[in-house]
């Protein structure tokens, strides 16, 4: 059985779907692995490492995908990439089916598409959970990017010339990415506040040293949030109004704002309005 891996073509995408270490595991199991030349360069995985792992290096995407029974990608294939695959191939990638215009192309080609981001988060499937691993990276990197852009320091500094207050960081959305963002910002010395639609997230935020931005909830809303995991429930107009007021106040006073809130299968909610951004301090950073 042949596994094909090609270079990601999406703008700004530096990841590769298969590392040399994993390629070695596949070749050890008897699979034939073909990797497009340069596919891993942006991830510091040169062609020589794939060759040493027992994989073959193809000069083009077409050669890497030719006769491939399984195709591994980070981002869902474009229509042109799908045309290079053989009918009946199995494709593993992040497909974002709610926003993918190429589903009909995949179907016409007879591809079996496995949306890795939709695999249930259960114990048996933990090794295939791409959402948690990538969210961890995103939350960590978001704070580092903000720190790089922020013109002042994160921690409080006490000098003979005076005291510099610590940076105020607001994290909106306390899933895996949000929790990692809180932990990273706290390690850098910032004062952190966070908000989420799940009441259960309060304990997680406080365990990391963050302050919980509390939005009043009715008993009915609390029951709804607990029953659905907090991601898909539709809040009342009163909750939306109260949340907007609290977020507006917190964000207006923040130096750094990290937004990680999202709803699986739907467009991420817009929690920071233009009016609120206009109130933010000069030099503040929004990620």
What's the layout of helices and strands?
Blueprint: E1 2-5, H1 20-28, E2 32-36, H2 47-52, E3 56-58, H3 61-65, E4 70-75, H4 79-83, E5 90-94, H5 103-109, E6 112-115, H6 130-149, E7 157-159, E8 162-164, E9 168-172, H7 176-187, E10 191-195, H8 201-207, E11 211-212, H9 219-228, H10 237-252, E12 256-259, H11 274-279, E13 285-286
Parallel strand pairs: 1-2, 1-4, 2-3, 4-5, 5-6, 9-10, 9-12, 10-11, 12-13
Antiparallel strand pairs: 7-8
Structure overview:
The chain folds into 2 domains: 2-118, Rossmann fold; 135-286, Rossmann fold. The chain contains 11 helices and 13 strands. A hairpin with a 2-residue loop joins strand 7 (157-159) and strand 8 (162-164). The model has no long low-confidence stretch (mean pLDDT 92). The longest helix has 20 residues, at 130-149. The chain has helices spanning 20-28, 47-52, 61-65, 79-83, 103-109, 130-149, 176-187, 201-207, 219-228, 237-252, 274-279, and strands at 2-5, 32-36, 56-58, 70-75, 90-94, 112-115, 157-159, 162-164, 168-172, 191-195, 211-212, 256-259, 285-286. The strands form 3 sheets. It has a 6-stranded parallel sheet with strand order 3-2-1-4-5-6. With 287 residues, the protein is α/β, with parallel strands linked by helices.
